[in-house]
C-alpha cells in the first residue's frame, strides 16, 4: 500500500513539475517572440529614415549639374531624416534604460505643481505655433516622492501629444489633484481623438493610429510607451479616454509615497 501511495504521489508531483515547466516554457517563448518582434520593429523604424536619405543622396549624385536650389532642398530633407533617426535612437535608449529589471530611480521629494508648470512652459512654443491654448489647473499643492526626470518625461510626452494631435486653435487642459494616497494628473485636449479599436494599443512601442499622419507630425511611436513605463516604475497607472473628432483625455495616478519593488514584495 505504502508503495502504491508513493507511486501516486510521485506521479502527481511529476505531473505538477511538468505542467509548471510547460507553463514556464510558454512564457519564455512569449518573451522571446516579443523580443524578436521588438528587434524587428526597431530595425524597420531605423531603416525608414536611412532609406529616404539614400534615395535623396542617390538622386543628387545621379545628376551632373544640380541646381543650387534643388541641392539645398534635398540637403534639408536629408538633415530632417537625420534628426528623425536621432529622435528614434534617443527614445529607444530612454526606453531600454527604463526597461531594466532594477532601473535606477532617483527618488526625491518633488513639487508636482512646479513640475507641471515648467513642463507646460517648455512646450509653449510648440503650442503657440499651432495656436493651441494650454491651461493648467492646480487644485492643491502637491509634493510627492518621485523620480523627477522620469515623471517629467511622462507628463511632457502626454502634453506634447495633446498639442501635436490637436486642431489649429484648439485647447489643452492639464490639471493636478491629490488625496491622501495618490496624486492625479489629467491631460485633456480638443484634438482629433483616438478610435476605440486603437485605444488598447497606443501604449505599445511604435504603435501609431495613422502612420503617415503621425510621421508627418514627427513622432517616433515611442512617446506613450515611455510615459507608461515611467508611470509603472512609480507603481502608478495611466488610462486613456477618447472620442474621435472630439478629443482625448489621459489620466495618470501615482502614489504620493514611493514604495520600491523589494519593499512591496515583503
Ligand atoms: P508618436 O511619437 O507617434 O506621437 P506616441 O507613442 O506618443 O507616438 O503615441 C502613439 C500614437 O497614439 C500616436 O501616433 C497617435 O496616433 C496616438 N495619440 C497619442 N496621443 C494622442 C492624442 N492626445 N490625441 C490623438 N492621438 C494621440
From TrEMBL:
It is found in: Membrane. GO terms for molecular function: phosphoprotein phosphatase activity; phosphorelay sensor kinase activity. The keyword Signal does not apply. The keyword Membrane applies. Its main location: membrane. It is an enzyme of class 2 (transferase). It catalyses: ATP + protein L-histidine = ADP + protein N-phospho-L-histidine. Its EC number is 2.7.13.3. Keywords: Kinase, Membrane, Phosphoprotein, Transferase, Transmembrane, Transmembrane helix, Two-component regulatory system. Residues 1-33 form the HAMP domain. One of its GO terms (cellular component) is plasma membrane. It comes from the Bacteria. One of its GO terms (biological process) is cellular response to phosphate starvation. Residues 41-258 form the Histidine kinase domain. This is histidine kinase. It comes from Schaedlerella arabinosiphila. The lineage of its organism: Bacteria, Bacillati, Bacillota, Clostridia, Lachnospirales. The chain holds residues 204 to 469 of 469 of the full protein.
Amino acid at each position: 500500500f505504502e508503495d502504491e501511495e508513493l507511486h501516486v504521489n510521485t506521479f502527481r508531483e511529476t505531473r505538477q513539475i511538468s505542467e509548471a515547466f510547460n507553463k514556464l516554457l510558454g512564457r519564455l517563448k512569449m518573451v522571446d517572440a516579443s523580443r524578436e518582434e521588438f528587434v524587428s520593429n526597431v530595425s524597420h523604424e531605423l531603416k525608414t529614415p536611412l532609406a529616404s536619405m539614400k534615395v535623396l543622396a542617390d538622386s543628387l549624385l545621379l545628376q551632373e549639374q544640380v541646381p543650387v536650389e534643388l541641392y539645398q532642398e534635398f540637403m534639408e530633407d536629408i538633415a530632417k531624416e537625420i534628426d528623425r533617426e536621432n529622435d528614434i535612437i534617443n527614445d529607444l535608449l530612454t526606453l531600454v534604460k527604463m526597461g531594466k529589471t532594477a532601473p535606477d530611480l532617483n527618488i526625491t521629494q518633488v513639487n508636482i505643481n512646479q513640475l507641471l508648470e515648467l513642463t507646460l512652459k517648455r512646450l509653449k512654443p510648440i503650442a503657440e505655433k499651432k495656436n493651441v491654448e494650454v491651461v493648467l489647473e492646480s487644485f492643491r499643492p502637491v509634493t510627492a516622492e518621485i523620480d523627477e526626470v522620469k515623471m517629467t518625461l511622462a507628463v511632457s510626452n502626454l502634453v506634447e501629444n495633446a498639442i501635436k494631435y490637436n486642431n489649429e486653435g484648439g485647447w489643452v487642459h492639464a490639471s493636478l489633484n491629490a488625496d491622501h494616497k495618490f496624486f492625479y494628473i489629467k491631460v485633456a485636449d480638443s484634438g482629433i481623438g483616438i478610435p476605440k479599436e486603437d485605444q488598447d494599443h497606443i501604449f505599445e512601442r511604435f504603435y501609431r493610429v495613422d502612420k503617415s499622419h503621425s510621421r508627418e507630425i514627427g513622432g517616433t511611436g515611442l512617446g506613450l510607451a515611455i510615459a507608461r513605463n515611467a508611470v509603472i516604475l512609480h507603481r502608478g497607472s495611466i488610462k486613456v479616454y477618447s472620442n474621435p473628432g472630439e478629443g482625448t483625455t489621459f489620466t495618470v495616478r501615482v502614489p504620493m509615497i514611493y514604495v520600491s519593488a523589494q519593499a512591496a514584495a515583503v
